[in-house]
Amino acid sequence: MALITLRRNFCHLSDFRIHGALAALRNHPINHVHKVSKEQLHPWFCSVQYEPFRIHFHHACYKKFHLQNGNELHPVGEPAFSQVHDWNKFEQNLKNEDEQIFYRRLNEFTSSEEVLSFIKTLETLPDAMAAGALQRICEVEKKGGDQRLPKEILESSVFQALCFQFEREPSQLSNSGLVTALQALIWLHVDTQSSLVLNLVAECQNRLKRGGLEVHDLCVLGESLIRLQGPGCVTLELIIYQLQGAKLEVFTPEDIVALYRILQACAEKVDQHQTFLNTINNFSLSIVSYLSPKSISQMLTALVVLDQAQALPLVIKLGKYVVRHIPHFTNEELRKVIEAFIYFGHNDRFFIKALERHVAAFCLTLDADVVSKIMEYCSRKLILSEPILNAVAETFVSQSEKLSPSQISELIEPFGKLNYLPPNAPALFRKLEHVLFTHFNYFPPKTLLRLLHSCSLIAHPPVNFMGKIFSPFFLQKLQGEESHLDRLSMAQLTQLFLTSVLECPFYKGPKLFRQYQVKSFLTPCCSLETPMDFHLYKSVMIGLIDLLGARSYFASKVLTPYCYTIDVEIKLDEEGFVLPFTVDEDIHKRVALCIDGPKRFCSNSKHLLGREAIKQRHLRLLGYQVVQVPYHEIEVLKSRQELVEYLQSKLFPQNSTVHW
C-alpha cells in the first residue's frame, strides 16, 4: 500500500497516456457506480473508515482543484458535471495500470515545475497520488540542495490547490495519503504553525489514538514528528509503543530501517528500548538481502548511534552485502558504512578487495571526506592496501589544493603508520612540502605535529620544518592553555628530535628543550613502541638459555639512553664472547634482539609498522646489531632443537659455535 513501494515496483512501465484513460461506465446509474467503485477501487483509496477523497481538476477554471465528496461540492465558476460522468472518469483514472504509470512518470521529473505541470494535465487525482506528487516535489528540491521551496512554487495555483484540499478535509484522507502529505510538507519546510500542518498533525494524532494506523503509516508519522517536534514529543512514545505491539513479520524491509531511524533519534532512551532492539536485531538478519544500499548504510549508522555492540552477527551479515553494493553507494552512504565498520572493528578481506577496486577506479571523483574515512579505516585496522594507498597518493598530488589541513593529515598519516612509500613518493613529498610552506600557519599545532611525525616514520624527516616546531613559539601554541604538554606530543617531539640528530647530521637549527623530552617511548597510554608479545618472548627465552647456557647472558626489556626499549640485549666482547648482562666494561658490540609479534606488523602481512621500522633504523644508527626474530619464523619451528639452531643462525651467522 505504501507510496514508496508503489514507485519502486512500477518504475519500468511504458509512457503515460492520461487522455486515453477516461472512457468507460458512462451509462451506469449512480447507485451502480457507487457499488462498482467500492468493490473495485484499490484498498489504499477506499478506506474502511473514511469516505473516498479525490481532487478533481477543471481546465476551464484557472486550473483549480476542488474536493468532491458525494454530492456536496461542485466546481466553482463552471457548470456541474453529472455524478455519473464524474464517477466514470474517476474510476477509469484509478485503473491499476494508470496508477502505476502515474508513479512512473512522477519519478521521471527532475524539477518541481515539471511535477506541477504534469499534475495540471490530470482531471482527477486520488489523495495518495496527490501526496505522492508533494513527496516528489520534496525529493527533487532536496536533490537540488534547497532548504525551502522557491517563491514561484509556493505561489503556484496548482501547489496551493493541493495544499488547500489537504487542509480543508483531512478527515477524508486515506491513512497513506494523510501521513505522506504531512511528511512531504514538513520536508518542504512549510510553516509548521500553519493551519495546514496543524490540521494534518491533529488528524494523525486522532487516528493514532484510535489505533487506526498500519505499521508503515506509523513509521512515516514517527519520522515526521521527530523532524517537526523533536524526539522528545509525547506522541512519539505512543507510536513506538504501538510498533512494539506489532508483529515484525508485517514490517517491510523499509519499515524496519525506518524503525531503526526512529529509535536512533531517541538514542538517550536506548536502555528502555533495548529488549525491543534485541528483537529487531535478530529479525533483521532475515531481511538483509532485501535492503538497498541506502538502507544498509542507514541501518549500520543506527546500530552505531544506538551502540549495539551485541548485534555483531547483524553487522557481519550487513558487511557481506556491503561488498556487493560498494559501486552503488553514494559518497555519504559509503562514508557512513566505513565509519560503522571502524566502530564495530569489522574487517573482511572481500570488503577490502571491493574497496580497492572502487577506490582505484573512482578515487579522483570521491569526496575528500570519504577518502579520509577510507584511510582512517586502513590505518586503524592496520591494512596495508597498496591499490588504495597508491590511488590516494595520486589523488593528493593532483588535488591537494582542494583539501583542508585536517584532510591532508588524515590522508598522509597512514603512510607513516603503515610504513609504506607509494611509487610517486618523490612527487608526494614535494607537493606536501609545498603545501606546508604555503599554509603552515593554517594547520592546527597538533595536526601539524602528527603529520610531520608520520613523515619521519618512513625515513622522510621534515628537516625544513624542524626549526619551526622546536621553536618556543610553536611549543607554546602546541601546549595551548594547558599547564603542561600532553605525553604523546612530547614523545612525538622527542622522536623527531632524535631523527634530526641521527638521520639529519647537517641540521643546525634549534634543538628541542629538555623539558619537552621524554625518557621512554614505551608507556601504557601513549606509546610509540609496540609492547613485546609475552608468549613469543617466553618461547625465545627458552631457546636463548639453551643456546647461551644461562639466563645471566642476556637482559630483557632494556631501556636505552635514547628512549627505546630493547626486547633482549646481548653484550659481546672484542673476540665475540658473550658477556653477562651485568658487565659494563669491555663491551665491543651490543646485540638488540627484536622479538616481533603479530601486533608489530600490518594486518595479515609480514610488513613492519612504521613505529617499529623507525625504532630498528635508529638502533642501527646508534651502533646496535639489530636482529629481528619475527613470529612467523618462530611458529614454523617444530622442536626445541630447531629453535636453538634458528637463534644461533640469527645471532651468530658466521660462527658455528658460541662462546660464553
Summary keywords:
single chain; 660 residues; five-stranded mixed sheet; 55% helix; elongated; RAP domain-containing protein; RAP; RNA binding; FAST_Leu-rich; mitochondrion
Give the helices and strands, then pairings.
Elements: H1 3-9, H2 30-40, E1 54-58, E2 64-67, H3 83-93, H4 96-108, H5 112-120, E3 124-126, H6 127-143, H7 151-154, H8 157-168, H9 175-187, H10 195-209, H11 215-229, H12 234-245, H13 253-265, H14 270-284, H15 293-305, H16 312-325, H17 331-344, H18 349-362, H19 368-380, H20 386-399, H21 405-417, H22 425-439, H23 445-457, H24 463-469, H25 472-479, H26 487-503, H27 534-548, E4 555-559, E5 565-572, E6 578-579, E7 589-596, H28 610-621, E8 625-630, H29 631-634, H30 640-651
Parallel strand pairs: 7-8
Antiparallel strand pairs: 1-2, 1-3, 4-5, 5-6, 5-7
Helix pairs in contact: 2-3, 4-6, 5-6, 6-9, 8-10, 9-10, 9-11, 11-12, 11-13, 13-14, 13-15, 15-16, 15-17, 16-18, 17-19, 18-20, 19-21, 20-21, 20-22, 21-23, 23-26, 27-30
How would you characterize this protein structure?
- With 660 residues, this protein is α+β, with helices and mostly antiparallel strands.
- Helices cover 55% and strands 6% of the residues.
- It has 30 helices and 8 strands.
- The chain has helices at residues 3-9, 30-40, 83-93, 96-108, 112-120, 127-143, 151-154, 157-168, 175-187, 195-209, 215-229, 234-245, 253-265, 270-284, 293-305, 312-325, 331-344, 349-362, 368-380, 386-399, 405-417, 425-439, 445-457, 463-469, 472-479, 487-503, 534-548, 610-621, 631-634, 640-651; strands at residues 54-58, 64-67, 124-126, 555-559, 565-572, 578-579, 589-596, 625-630.
- The strands form 2 sheets. Strands 4, 5, 6, 7 and 8 form a 5-stranded mixed sheet that branches. It has a 3-stranded antiparallel sheet with strand order 2-1-3.
- A hairpin with a 5-residue loop joins strand 1 and strand 2.
- Helix 23 (445-457) packs across helix 26.
- The protein starts with a helix and ends in a 9-residue tail after the last helix.
